[in-house]
Every structure is written in structure tokens, then in C-alpha cells.
Amino acid sequence: MGLAVYVHIPFCVRKCNYCDFPSYPVAGMDVDGYLAAMGREMSWYKGDIAGTEVSTLYVGGGTPSILANGQLEFLFEAIRHNFTFEADAEISLEANPGTLDFSKLNLLKELGVNRLSLGVQGLDPGLLKRLGRIHTPGQALEAFDLARRAGFTNINLDLMHGLPGMTEEGWRQTLQQAVALGPEHISVYGLIIEEETPFGLEYEAGSLELPDEEERARMFAWSGEFLTESGYNHYEISNYALPGRECRHNQVYWRNEKYLGFGAGAASYRHRVRRTNYRQVGQYMAVVSQGRLPLEEKEETAPAQEISETMFLGLRLTAGVQRSWFLQRFGIELDQVYGDRVAALVSKGLLLDDGDSVRLSSSGILLANEVFCEFLP
Amino acid sequence: MGETSRYLRNFCIIAHIDHGKSTLADRLIEYTGALSEREMAEQVLDTMDLERERGITIKLQAVRLNYRARDGQMYTLNLIDTPGHVDFTYEVSRSLAACEGALLVVDAAQGIEAQTLANVYLALENNLEIVPVVNKIDLPSAEPERVKAEIEEVIGLDASEAILASAKSGIGVEEILEAIVSKIPPPEGNDNAPLKALIFDSHFDPYKGAVSYIRVMEGRVSKGTKIKMMSTGRVFEVTEVGVFAPAMKIVRELKAGEVGFVAASIKNVKDTQVGDTITDSEKPALFPLPGYRKATPMVYCGLYPVDTGDYGNLRDALEKLHLNDSSLVFEPETSVALGFGYRCGFLGLLHMEIVQERLEREYNLNLITTAPSVVYKVNKTNGETVMVDNPSNLPPDQEILSIEEPNVKATIMVPSDYVGSIMELNQEKRGAYLNMEYLSANRVMLTYEMPLSEIVFDYFDQLKSRTRGYASLDYELAGYKEADLVKLDIMLNSELVDALSSIVHRDKAFNRGKALAEKLKEIIPRQMFEVPVQATVGNRVIARETIKAMRKNVLDKCYGGDITRKRKLLEKQKEGKKRMKQVGSVEIPQEAFMAVLQIDD
């Protein structure tokens, strides 16, 4: 098994109203310095991973496509300097409409990016504005078209429902328009209100008009039906792909396998230890420049916790958790650990159990957190 | 009279909450130098955290002060603190029995309040000398002359020599001390007579055993005295005698008239019953002192651990609390919905809240409290009479001939502008008007007879909110009266939840049932299935609400590799579930069991 590597670019043109990820408006940031620091951080793992090739690379953000062409070249040079890739490695990059042009797309293709994830989020001009996105629906469609012309044959579109002011009809139109473009992959996320974001503050003040729980449930459920009908495989709670186009990198997370993350706020999981880098860019850079690992948090996962996490992550995949795979990984039968809980959830209609694997039922998907809680240690 | 007791005074302070009793006590302690300034924390006597937070006195305390009076003599003054809230009248009567006099502290702006009046009457019954003090005279709104007139009119005391004081700024403190010396008589009692000491309180000390707070009436007691508890006849050898300075300080002996403590390696607090008389087993007194009426719990509720494994811890905690609070009673009970717990009796709602808070805070217990109930007298068709303190124990309808409920005589003092709203409130609460008396041109005393159960619910809050906090309330039990009462049950998902049953007046059953169902719908979170909430009387459904099924609870957001965060979100959710009680198939939050207290009629 090869390596899964994540690289975080914490810069955006501006922060969206719902975002609580580690990202910062790019103006005035020392982007070059940041990329150099990341290069340095990567170099410290060279010895450790020698002999292992990278099978998936995910460049996420923030907005990786905000980087100038020269900065992108520098970044990929640094990556290739420290890692070797499998021949068919999946190399994804997140890009936002409004930060892409044809030359940048051509460069990305040249640099080896073979999967593009477009942060479209919506196709209703009013809602995009409300989210604080910098692009218009027209720019989103144009970006998709340019990417196709630049030769990208594996494109994901990120879309959000449950937005303030969104109607069910509005959401249906958006999703239909997106499917009409024919992307290989679609991620559908429900808006989550996070504290300390502009939306969070509005929510607390009581001025955020969100669709109610019934409507949000229907938006979620309809998405599943429509995309499945349209030929997409609903392979994870929020993710849909044409057959064979499932994102390999993200499946590493859901299978609770190891991965290496670089950059501010990036998480790693190796040798049963979860580590998170400093989320503050300045702090991250300062610590790296002192020659120290930029670790903000470190947590060893006890065996019971690893099993628990493997269950609640694995159940996010619609294929569920296979008993034989579980036995092979942990050396213990799944039923020995969770037999009674699985049975109880099956009887509530939330899990399906065909004897071979355990997976969420269609009503279980909508109440997945209720199910996952049962698998906490 | 012994030589020492001529220079001894035992007194207490009677005051309404907020009228400055604790501040005055602090000033007296400060003035007489019982504590160095360093030791003076604000409000010395209120030692429990809860007392300080709420600004009230719950437990009584005693402190000994030394004061050199203007006559040049050194006097020993024992101040015995009294609680000010209506729930604790019983504790007040205990401190009164140990004193010869009382300071009556009245706020110069507010005037006499109902509770103060009740306590003054209690003091007069005990033949205490009352020294009126008008406090807070430096407030801009102070009207000392009006308040003095009120003292004369309402209580019938001569207020011409009332001391004008401000405990806060120290005005009048010396005058108060002089008045204690000159007006309150020294204790009587013969040092050489057989020992008679009244136990007015006790607490449990892990090293000394049960410590009795005593007032020696006759004779003397010292280390080595073999004391006998007159009610049980049990004998213990005294290991320590002492006084409250205000910290416990060992002395050689306590003599007639003195106030202090005795420890005698008593393992069980039941052996130092408050109100009992201690005598000397080798030279016993013939008759005990008159005790005082035992505290009768007025309000009962069930206390259940959320985690059934905590049952033993709850029992231990209740037993420990009982050591210092003999008015708390409890016995095991079971509920279909909540499992094993305790039925606990309290002096009133405040007492109940305080006990509940102490259990949660000091003993770290996670508890479910069921709605409070009074004790009903049920006359059965077979001629039997049973007392019911838990609505779910009400006999079946066909066995009931009649139900009687406890009534109280309630005294409310209020500015006359609010008489209308009080009358309206009392009518809603099934009160029967008895009397109205003008205390002064604009203050009125209203007397009503009303069911205790109505007072137990939100009466006090309503009273305060409808009179902008100006009304004060006192009540005393006034016997049982028959009423048309029914049991209101709650069914969740078609299952009866016994812990949510209540006994209500038939005329109010419909409104209360409807309000309760609505409230429960609000409090109980959505479950994975639809949950009907029904309020029933007999077999008749009088109200129905539906808690819709939970439709969506899924983290459909991209968190990438931040799995720790995902897990923390789930853990938080699971933690929330832990605070719920699974009843049948429904998960109910703790506060639902108190919902009946949160509804307006």
C-alpha cells in the first residue's frame, strides 16, 4: 500500500461566511515563505518513508488554486523532491472558480494533477453571494468548461444544500444543472453552522433563516435518489461518483488508514498517533523555521479507540464494514466487539447486516450520528 | 444567679432576607474583635457556598463575642444566627429557645415583612426581649419614622427607643451592643443544679463524632462528664466542651446560661437529637426541658440517580446531609420509569432546591428530581385512611371516597397598590379570603386560606413578579380540607410515566394537562420515531401533542483528515444522551420531570 499525502494551502481571497477551516485571506500573507516552510517540513520525513511511493496526493485548502503559477511550480517541485509517486497515483487539487484561468489549468495538468475538485457550492447567484463566495454561477460553469478543455477527465463538483434562504426547488435545479455538466464526481454537503463564523453569529442572533429539519432531510434524501438515478454511485454519506471514479484519497480517511499531512492545520495519522499541525500560519512557519515539528496536538489512539473510529468512519462508506476485513485488521471478530450493538441498530432499522458486512440503511444514513455514537468506546 | 451569668447575654437576630442581618452580624463580630481583620471574610456566619451565593442563611450558627460595655464590665454575648426564609421557621424556633432576647432588624425603606412578623410572634411566645433596630437608615429611600410607627402598630412593641443603624456603614453598632447588654436579661439558671442543656443543633465531624450545639440551662458540663441523652437514656463521656469564637474553641467547662458545644465520641447523629435535653448521668435532672415541635416535611419529591449505579452514592450522600439537617427525611422508593431512588421530604421548595443542589455539587451526583408533591389524606371506601406523598401511589379511583389536601393560612404583606393583583393571584390559586388589614396608609396585610399544593408550585415567583418583588409571604399549616382532586397522568409513546404523574384540582386538570403536554413536547428532543405525548385523567385523554421523529442527524460535511474533530462531535452528542433517562423507548432529559413546575395555569 502506498502513501496518502495531504498538503494544506490555508489561503483564500476571502473567508466564506460559513467557513471555520484553517484559512486566511491571502492579502499580505507570506505565501512564498509558507510554501518554503512546507517544503522543509516534508524533507523531515524523507528518511522515514524512503522506499514507499505516494499513491494519493490531495492538495486542499483554503484555496490551492489561489497560488500563482510560479508558486504552484515551486510547490510541486518541493513535493516531487521529497516523494516519489506510483505511476497511477491520484493527484487531486481543490480549485475555486474565480481563481482559475486556462494557463493555470494547463500548468496544473503539466504538474501532474489528474483530479480537479471545483468548489462550486451553488449555482444560484443570490445564494452564492450569501455564502460569501467570490464567484458567480457563470464563472463556475466557465471554470468547468476550461478544465475540460485543459484535459481534465476527472472532475469533482462540491455543492451545498440546507443554505439560508434555499428552497427545495432551488436545490433541485442546482443539482440538475450540475449533473448536466457531467462531472465524474459530486460531493454534496449539508451546511453546518459553526460558532464564531458570520453564519454562527447570525444564527445566535436569530436572524438566520434556515430550512427546517424536515426540508433539510428531504434535500439530502432527494440528492441521493436523483444522483443514483443519474448513474452516480452513492459511495459515502456525502459523496457520489461515476463507477471507478471514487476519490481514492478520501477513502483512506474512511478506512481509518494512515496518511501524512503537511502545512498549517494539517492532520496526520501514522503508527496509531494522530497529529495536528499548528492552525495559525504564522505559528506554523515560526516553529518550522526553528527546525522543530509544528505539532499543535498529538494523540495516541488506544486499541479500543482505533476500533471505534474504524467503525464510525467505515460506516460512512455505503459498502459498510466487512467482517473479514475487520477480523484481518484487528484479529478479533466484529461481532465479538459490537455484536449486540449491531443487532440493536439492525432492529431499529438503522443498519443492514447481510452476514458479510454491516452498513447503514437508507434511514440510517440520515441518522448516521445516532448510529456512530453507539460505536464510541 | 451565678456570678458569670450576670455578664452573659444570649441573643439572636430576626430579620427578613436582605434586611441586613448577616451584615449586622459581621459588624458585631468586627466591633468586638472576635476575628482579626484578616480573618473577616464577608458574611462570616454564612459558611456554606450556597448560602453566600444566594445571600441567605440556611443553617443556624452561633458565635461568642466579648464586649466591654460603657459600664466598664466585660460581657460575653452569644449570637445565635437564624435563617430568614419561610421554609426554615423550624430552625428559627430552635435558636429562639436558646436565647433571652432578639434584635428585630427592619429595613428602613421596606418596612416589616411577613416572615419577620411571624418570627417576632414566635420570639414573643418564647418570652424573648425584643430590641428593635431600624437598619439601612442611610439609604435615600429610608423612612425610619414610618417604619417605627409600623413596628408599633403591627407588632405592638414600643419603638420609641428603636436604634437607628446602618450595618453597612457601621452606624449604630455600639448602641446595639449597649442595648443588648442593658435590655436583654442575663440568663437565669443555677450552676449547681443538675445539668440540663438543650441541643439546638448538631453537626458531624469526622474526628470528633457528632458535635451537639447546646445551651446550658442549669448546672455545668466539662470534659469527662458522663452525659445522658434524656430521650434515649444513652450515656456518653464528654471528650471536649467549647465555644464558638466563631471557630470552635475548647474551654474548661460550660455553665448555666452559656452557649457552646460538646463532643463525646458519638458515632451516630441520631444520638444527639435536636431538641433533646442533655443531663449528667451521675446527677441527673428529673425532667427534660420542653423540646420543640418537630419539623414536619411539607413537600415531597423523588430523587433518582441518572446513572442507576449511583444509587448507593445517593444514599450515602443523603445520610451525610441528614447529619447536619435533621429536617430532611428520606426513604427508598422505586419508580417504573426511573428505577431505584428516594422519596425525600423537605420543609419547603427552597429547602428542596438547596438539598438537590448540594447533592449535585458537593457529592457530584447527577440526579433526576420529580415534581414536588404535598401529602394528601385519602379516605378509602373501606373506611381506611392513607397518607399519599407520591401521586403514583394514589389508590385506584373506585377505592377513593374522598381526598383531603393540606391547607395553609397565608399572610401576605404588600403595598396597597398591589392588593388587586394579589387577590387575583390568590383566586387563581384556589385561595379563600380571610382578612385584610391596613398596617399603615399604604401597606396591607392580607390573610388567605389556600391549598399548600398551590403554594408549592410557582406561587412565590408569581407573587414576586406581580408585585415587583414588594410582597412578602408567610404561611402556617391550617389542617386538611376535602377537595375535588384527580390524578393527572402522562403517557409517552402510549406508556404511562409514573414519575410525571401529579395530583391536581379537577377544574384545573384540563389546562394543566394541556400545558404540561406542550411543555414536554418542547423539552423532550426528537427521537428516532414519533412520540405521542398524552395527558390523561382516569382513562380519558385530555390533551395530546406529538414530538416529531428526528429526521436528520448526520455530519455531511467534508472534514478531511480531521478525525479527532469528528470524534469529539460524536462524543459531545453521546455526553448529551448520558444526561437523559431512558424511559421505555423514549429518552427524557432530566428537566422534563420538573416540567410541571414550569407551566403557568
> Can you give the helix content of chain A as a percent range?
40-55%
Please mark out the parts of chain B with pLDDT under 50 across 5 or more consecutive residues, or reply none: 55-60
Contiguous low-pLDDT stretches of chain A (5 residues minimum) are: none
Strand order of the largest sheet of chain B: 11-10-16-7-8-15-12-13
Largest sheet of chain A: 9 strands, mixed
Strand order of the largest sheet of chain A: 9-10-8-7-6-5-4-1-11
The rough form of chain A would be described as globular
Number of strands of chain A: 17
- Which quaternary structure do these chains form? heterodimer
Please identify the structural class of chain B as seen in this structure.
alpha+beta
Q: Estimate what percentage of residues of chain B fall within beta strands.
A: 25-35%
Structural class of chain A: alpha/beta
Shape of chain B: globular
Task: Please give a structural write-up.
The complex is a heterodimer of chains A (377) and B (601). Chain A has two domains: 3-254, TIM Barrel (Alpha-Beta Barrel); 303-373, Arc Repressor Mutant, subunit A, CATH 1.10.10.920. In chain A, 43% of the residues lie in helices and 22% in strands. Chain A has 16 helices and 17 strands. In chain A, the strands form four sheets. Chain A has a nine-stranded mixed beta sheet, sandwiched between helices. Chain A has a three-stranded antiparallel beta sheet with strand order 12-13-14, with no helix packed on it. In chain A, strands 15-17-16 form a three-stranded antiparallel beta sheet. In chain A, strand 16 (351-353) and strand 17 (357-360) form a beta hairpin. In chain A, helix 1 (31-43) runs parallel beside helix 3 and helix 1 packs across helix 11. The longest helix of chain A has 17 residues, at 213-229. The radius of gyration of chain B is 27 Å and the shape is globular. Mean pLDDT of chain B is 85; it is low at 55-60. With 601 residues, chain B is of the alpha+beta class. Classes of the chains: A alpha/beta (377), B alpha+beta (601). The A-B interface holds A 6, 58, 60, 158, 187-190, 192, 213-214, 216-217, 220, 237-238, 250, 253, 256, 259, 261, 266-269, 274, 276, 297, 299, 309, 312-313, 348, 350, 365-370, 372-373, 376 and B 526, 528, 548, 550-558, 560-564, 566-567, 569-571, 573-574, 577.
